[in-house]
Amino acid sequence: MKRLLYIIMLVSLCSAQQLVVKTDNSTSTIPVQSSVQAVVDNGQVHISPNSNSAEARWIVELTEPPLLHYKLRKTTTTAPLEARRVAILNAVRTFAPTVKISKEYSTVINGFNIEAPRNSLAAIRNIPGVKTIHEDFLVSTEPIPSTVSNPIVLTPPTNASGKGVRIGIIDTGIDYNHEALGNGFGKGHHVAGGYDFVNNDSDPQDDHGHGTHVAGIIAGYSETLKGIAPNAELYAYKVLNSQGKGYASDILAAIEQAIRDSVDIINLSLGSPFGNPNDILSTAVDRAVEAGILVVAAAGNDGEFESIHSPGVARNALTVGATDGKFIASFSSKGPVANDYSIKPDVVAPGVGILSAKAGGGYISMSGTSMAAPIVTSIAAVLKEMHPDWNAFQIKDAIISNSLDLNNQLFAQGGGTVTEKIFSTNIIVSPAHISFGFDPPNLTQWVRSDTVKVFNAGSATKQYTFTYVSTNPALNITLQPSTVTIGPSEEKNIVVTITTNNLFLSNNKEFSAGYTGKIYGYSSVDTLIVPFTFFKGNVLHLAFNETPLQVIVHNRKNFKKTVAPKTSSLAFVVNNEPHDIITAFFDSRYVVKESLSVSGLTPVTITSDEAIHKISLIPLDEKGTPLHYDPKATYSIVEAILFKPSGSAYVGVGGGMMRSENTQVRYFSSMSSQYSYGMALNVQYGTPLSYTFEAVIDSGITHATDITFTDKPLRKVEVKFSVEPTVQKVFPITWLSFSGIASRVSVTFYNGNDTPLMYPFIQTNYYSQSNINFPIFHKKEAYTF
User: Fold this and answer.
1) What are the backbone dihedrals phi and psi of residue 656, each rounded to the nearest 5 degrees, phi first?
2) In percent, how much of the chain has pLDDT > 90?
3) How far apart, in whole angstroms, are the C-alpha atoms of residue 239 and residue 769?
4) I need a surface site. Which of 418, 450, 553, 760 has the fewest CB within 10 A?
5) CA dist., res. 441 & res. 449, Å (int)
6) Residue 62 has what pLDDT?
7) Which CATH number is correct for 56-136, 3.30.460.80, 3.40.50.2020, 2.60.120.260, 3.30.70.80?
8) Which residues does the annotation mark as catalytic?
């Protein structure tokens, strides 16, 4: 036995359970109820959103297509859809009996919503008839507080009023008792129907305020407020709670109900950064539009490029950004969309200082793309009244192609800002903007074509001459035919072909800085504008089956890019050379892909299921038996996956109250001997007793293994803390550290509910005895009072 004397270095006192993470530049304290998992990069600590939840929410999609699939194709199912779904539900209850099943879907998707631990998903995926399992991600609405002294008061721009048009508002509900919203609910009232999917009842009353404000912008009518479509019929679908938060699963249910209620337009002034054009919510929106319902979605309030929220990223959604006067609002989310380099937002509309109804009575101004979207929704309602034969795609394209060009960045403004011009036009351009996608740099010449359709909904013949003037000799656009004459109710096609000479066309360096341009169509009375874009460069596009904790892309030499994703889809602009990808998923699953060749657009799919090798760290006490469970015991961890040749590393930390299972389990994909994995684990039984273990796998991972520390006994060290005479109580802690090439990361867990160490301030410590070639370390400190 060895006794060490420690001088107290840390003398502040904390009063709660928290994980403390130190980097070279900062210290972060994370309150913890049970346990937490986090990743660290460049001094920033990113907490797993599911760290404190043993269970998560999922949407199970079945192989059998939904009812909408058969309706659109005018076919019938071969057997009752409901019966087959019930059979699969029964199988889920058999193979995963702890799963909680809540909502079922049949219209836009065929499936159901569950609450289940991640370790039960494999059994569910293997049930015949299950297609895939989606994250049921959080969705929220976050309006920007308005500080405008003279808020914009909207007035109807036309004599039309949205009469006969049904609008579904999927939001926080609507205060249907507000004077501007009809003072009532149900058939014959302004708010004619709806449902509360948060509380599962038929009363969609607003307990937050956001949905009421949105409804007032669209259709409010009083002495103070004049909505643009005051005679539209509203349907309130409450999917967000009193804090303005909810889940994708409830929005799916609301979209299905809106279809059953035969709405014409859906407004979605909400969103989540945890999505992409192929996520389940975007898929539902696309299918609703295919079924004839125009879906208007807010772009989001992140203000950055590549930050469009879901479902605003949906291909068929009419996605709306915000303007502040004549400029793009600073908070308005921008494109492009990573998957296909598509143009979002589609249009922009006023979104700063918008006056509308306040839940509970009165009026209030708010800002956000949440306010811009209902302006476009109300314009769409007026268009639908004026042109009842126009379908959802035509209304969408009409609004985009008749917006006012602000001459701003394409991925900030889309087609431009909506104006009254839309109510006097009869020309629809489809698509209203074009993305040609990705130009591979390894090609000498790149050629792509798309077809623009111009529809004349008016009573007079129109003639347009289309042209594009290039200022770049390496870029050429041809238009065939270049001049079209379009009679009433007639449509003409123009084939747009882009040709690039890649020998003289520079690669784009930033993903949001691709090539853009505008095709003009001139007539004697008006001008059509069709924006276009493409990206030239090497793009590594990553698609995940769930949103990862962290993704690291490195070129095995001197380039490293680390992201804590907000979405399950990422794009990296890289050089034409091999790259590795390290992906950390929740539930301690790690996937490493090595030496991927990148040329042009290189799509890579990464799933947590690829982590098939189970690695168990089994901590044993001084008697050689597994550490016993104590609900008052705590633990902390630092771990790293290290690429040895360059030092690029993933670093994770965690800690909390001891789990019932002391064994630390990790799952890895195969990785070569150029990678090593190391972990340091500290378990503390109150203040008198502490165990610290270190483990390294230095030669890659190709199979499952257990690490039990049975080769050497634990080393016992009694630590005596030297304190000032006035100190009466001591809380010992153990710092675990990883020291990388760029910075050091240290972690400890402090339990303010522990009984402090009393005089003579001696703590018994046990350490695993191993000579490891890995940069992890530990040291003792203490809190005192």
Assistant:
1) 150, -155
2) 66
3) 55
4) 760
5) 18
6) 95
7) 3.30.70.80
8) 171, 210, 370
